[in-house]
């Protein structure tokens, strides 16, 4: 069975279907996710320090918000979301099944810690 070259939306020669990525929507979602990640980090520190009085990231004397480490945690959470967006964008442009590769990369377990010598 032969398939016409434009059956899969391919306007180019070579037979490979074209893929378009709406980069504006992707990065807008990535920035929104980064803001949510930063806010979740801040709220988590506020709950841990304010409600449960756990000295997370700073001594108790630093108050409910802690010190600059709290804001650094929020910035790292936002940066991680933006890096994940960049990785997804790269995969969308370069791999045949980008969402599957992204899932594999994000859920890949880190190597286990070394066991102590016996």
Written account of the structure:
With 118 residues, the chain is mainly α. It has a domain at 39-94. Helix 1 packs antiparallel against helix 2 and helix 2 (68-94) runs antiparallel to helix 3. The model is unreliable at 6-15 (pLDDT under 50). The chain is built from three helices and no strands.
Q: Give the overall pLDDT as a whole number.
A: 81
- Radius of gyration computed on alpha carbons: 22 Å
Largest beta sheet, briefly?
A: none
Strand content: under 5%
Put simply, the count of helices is 3
Number of strands: 0
How much helicity do the residues have? 55-70%
The residue ranges in which pLDDT falls below 50 over 5 or more consecutive positions are: 6-15
Order of H and E elements: HHH
Q: SS-based structural class?
A: mainly alpha
Overall geometry comes to: flat
Q: Give the N-to-C terminal Cα separation.
A: 64 Å
Summarize the structure.
With 118 residues, the protein is mainly α.
Which short descriptors sum up this protein?
single chain; mainly alpha
Secondary-structure topology with pairs:
Blueprint: H1 23-51, H2 68-94, H3 98-107
Helix pairs in contact: 1-2, 2-3
């Amino acid at each position: 069975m032969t398939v016409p070259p434009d059956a899969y939306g391919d306007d180019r020669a070579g037979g490979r279907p074209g893929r378009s990525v709406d980069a504006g929507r992707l990065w807008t979602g990535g920035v929104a996710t980064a803001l949510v990640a930063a806010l979740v980090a801040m709220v988590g520190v506020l709950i841990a320090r304010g409600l449960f009085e756990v000295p997370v990231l700073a001594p108790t004397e630093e108050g409910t918000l802690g010190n600059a480490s709290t804001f650094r945690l929020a910035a790292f959470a936002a940066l991680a979301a933006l890096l994940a967006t960049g990785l997804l964008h790269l995969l969308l442009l370069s791999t045949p099944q980008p969402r599957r590769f992204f899932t594999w990369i994000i859920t890949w377990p880190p190597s286990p810690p070394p066991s102590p010598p016996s």
